[in-house]
Design brief:
By secondary structure, this protein is mainly α. The protein has 5 helices and no strands.
């Protein structure tokens, strides 16, 4: 590529003009312009090639993956774990206080009384409660 341009520059333009019979000035200008443009394009391609080297992208990748995902991700997960553990603990405390402050008012004998019957009517009838529990067990698939 440079050989032709170097040879043209080495030749005196008057000699080429006398040999060809035409003025070679525009040809020399066009050839010089093409050479400068071609070299500028080659420099751009070389810069793009150097930009794609692994050494340029590795620090960016390392900072994104290691710093953002490994460090920040683990920190975020530890905050999530500690927050959920705190919520779970205090939820259990609230349930414990609820049971202590408002105990279940359901009396044990009311378990033997079917819905729609008054407890006071059949307290003396112990056989009725046993029949009710056995029918309840059968309905709950507990019968063998």
């Amino acid at each position: 590529g440079h050989t032709v341009l170097s040879n043209l520059e080495a030749i005196d333009s008057d000699v080429v003009t006398n040999f060809c019979g035409n003025d070679v000035g525009p040809f020399e200008v066009a050839t010089t312009f093409f050479d400068a443009t071609f070299h500028a394009l080659l420099e751009i391609v070389e810069d793009v090639r150097e930009l794609m080297f692994c050494g340029n992208w590795n620090p960016i990748y390392t900072s994104i993956v290691h710093d953002a995902i490994c460090y920040e991700g683990v920190t975020g997960l530890s905050w999530i774990y500690s927050s959920l553990s705190t919520i779970g603990f205090f939820g259990m405390v609230i349930l414990t206080f609820r049971y202590v402050l408002w105990p279940d008012t359901l009396e044990e004998e009311s378990l033997y009384t079917p819905p729609g019957r008054d407890n006071d009517d059949d307290i003396a009838d112990d056989n009725f409660g046993k029949k009710w529990m056995s029918s309840l067990r059968q309905r709950c698939c507990c019968a063998r």
